[in-house]
Design brief:
Two copies of one chain form a homodimer.
Chain A: E1 3-9, H1 13-27, E2 32-35, H2 40-46, H3 52-59, E3 63-68, H4 78-90, E4 95-101, E5 119-125, E6 129-138, E7 146-154, H5 155-170, E8 176-181, H6 187-202, E9 208-213, H7 214-223, E10 230-233, H8 235-248, E11 256-260, E12 268-272, H9 289-301, H10 305-320, H11 330-341
Parallel strand pairs in A: 1-2, 1-3, 3-12, 5-10, 8-9, 8-10
Antiparallel strand pairs in A: 4-5, 4-11, 6-7, 11-12
Helix pairs in contact in A: 1-9, 1-11, 5-6, 7-8, 9-10, 10-11
């Protein structure tokens, strides 16, 4: 039976995670969930971000479901570096998976894009690049200050995430992978990415490929998001592109993500892309769809593809049935989704 | 009398630059233009990208007007690093200025944004960050390959571009500057940018300020581009954000840019954001508006604010008068713009 660690976190995190658990319990009865108290609240209370003992315990689970961590009073970087990125790196979650669909019933911001037309997934590298934490500064707070950030890219790290992208594309209908980088400026890393991409592409003659500079991709995600199937890119570019993809498909309120260690050597982590939204926390009005879709990714990763499909179908029905402007109640949405997923 | 170096370049470059010159000649009679043959064509013919002698000659001009350089047969990086970036760095063009307006008459892609509502300018740093060319690789073409790219940021470089952004904001109606970075992950460079921003902000109590992470800014540029006035950001973030800003305001076909050395110690360079568009080159159908708007930025930089305003008014009239779907003729648009600008 699947053993899930649950980090509900701060703000609306607990509210949306409760719905994701409802749905999980419905489609996978008997799932064992253990709650871990991590995030801004714990940091404020104890000064702890992620004690080693907790990291070890988390490692013993099949997957982690996370709500949202953070609030405006925590200094930037503390929870990001100390918790979220720490988990991605410690658990070698090198596939940061971010699907974007424009669901029927959802009013996207783009006038010329119809529901159902956008169905893409960004495979963002999760353990390298500018997120490596390599950098420093000299002469801080003087006119001579210099600060650096270094993007570290290995053939090992780049090739494995590209392989994952091609494998995913091979299972999809359009079978297309777009590499996004900035090879004309970041020539060293760009060349590594491009050569690894070409090598893996050569092993997948059945998959179409294209390359785009990140600035062009950012533009085309707005003007023609329909053109993308699987996008593979580095850590920072993926961070930016997935927020654009979320924006054009109805907002981060609907965007799910998985930080995946495909080999299963470590637990993968699943979380909505949205944050803790302190402004609406505690009111029971947060949309739990992103958290529930993240639970569907979790199910898929653990091999429960059929249960995942049922959750996705429930979300599709929920979104198609919404009337724009009518406020939602978090718990009611969760109830409907759970009921639909087992109906 | 203003001495302008003209680099028409490749593809549609010469076609659109010809219109920009028509307009310049109309509003600033007697402007002296010297043509320089640089770009893909020259590289193919001679192997030269930017001979030192040409760089020296360019330095003797008041400004450079560039069309577009490149074609798909030139390896990535050759013209970008050897020509465009070389000029930005050699001429210390640290303010990369990219205004975005949703002009009346232009159908933007966003359903809920009305013409006239978007009027923002991105002040992109132009001489530092990941564009410094600092990086390398080891064990190339082996499984052990590692490739790095380093973002270099100095207090000197960061503070001066932030100062420029505040100065611009002070001359605008809304007087607001948004700093975009990724302080929660790129903690060293992010901290430098944030501290320099706060220091300059303290000298401008009349200017409103806000901070956004780059992923959030990428999203808000799609969902709420109206909220921005002046955006200041680093070289790479600016590259990406300005393409999004262009996309939501009608595409890079309308986007102008200036690579500016505000002190005038070196010539500033003005160019449309679009590329050489080989697919439509030579047909006389390219839209010269971006090139003409770039010429307006040139006029402004050289102190001809009134002439610049007349060019902008001509563009406004041109765009307001267009019928969607009716093909345009490059030269006719140029004629109309030149005539309107002096009417
Ligand atoms: C919170 C932050 C560290 C994180 C990232 O940059 O990866 C977030 O933006 C995301 O996309 O998951
Ligand atoms: C061509 C390339 C070097 C350039 C850049 O990245 O700055 C372009 O994308 C731009 O935005 O002017």
């Amino acid at each position: 039976m699947a053993r899930i660690a649950v980090v509900a976190g701060d703000g609306i995190g607990p509210e949306v995670v409760a719905q994701a658990r409802k749905v999980l319990d419905a489609v996978l009865p008997g799932v064992q969930a253990t709650e871990y108290d991590l995030g801004a609240a714990r940091w404020h209370r104890t000064g702890e971000v992620l004690p080693d003992s907790v990291l070890t315990e988390l490692a013993g689970h099949d997957a982690i479901l996370l709500g949202a961590v953070g609030d405006p009073t925590v200094p930037p970087g503390v929870l990001e570096r100390g918790l979220l990125l720490k988990l991605r790196f410690a658990f070698d979650q090198y596939v940061n998976l971010r699907p974007s669909r424009l669901w029927p019933g959802v009013a996207g911001p783009l006038g010329n894009v119809k529901p159902g037309e956008v169905d893409l997934v960004v495979v963002r590298e999760g353990t390298e690049g500018l997120y490596a934490g390599a950098g420093g500064s000299l002469h801080r707070d003087t006119p001579a200050e210099v600060a650096t950030e270094e993007s570290l890219n290995t053939r090992h790290g780049v090739e494995r995430v590209i392989r994952d992208a091609f494998a995913r594309a091979g299972r999809r209908e359009r079978r297309k992978v777009t590499l996004v980088h900035k090879t004309n400026v970041l020539t060293h890393a760009g060349s590594l990415w491009a050569r690894a991409f070409d090598a893996v592409a050569a092993e997948h003659p059945d998959v179409d490929t294209e390359y785009q500079h990140v600035d062009a991709a950012a533009m085309f995600l707005v003007t023609q998001p329909q053109r993308y199937d699987v996008v593979v890119t580095d850590n920072l570019f993926g961070d930016i592109l997935t927020d654009i993809a979320a924006a054009v498909t109805g907002g981060i309120g609907l965007a799910a993500s998985g930080c995946i260690n495909p080999e299963g050597a470590y637990p993968s982590m699943f979380e909505p892309v949205h944050g803790s939204a302190p402004d609406i926390a505690g009111q029971g009005v947060a949309d739990p769809v992103a958290a529930v879709l993240s639970a569907a990714l979790l199910l898929e990763q653990l091999g429960h593809a059929e249960a995942a499909a049922r959750v996705n179908a429930a979300v599709a029905a929920e979104l198609a049935g919404r009337t724009p402007g009518v406020p939602l109640r978090t718990a009611e949405v969760g109830d409907r989704l759970a009921a639909h997923a087992v109906s």
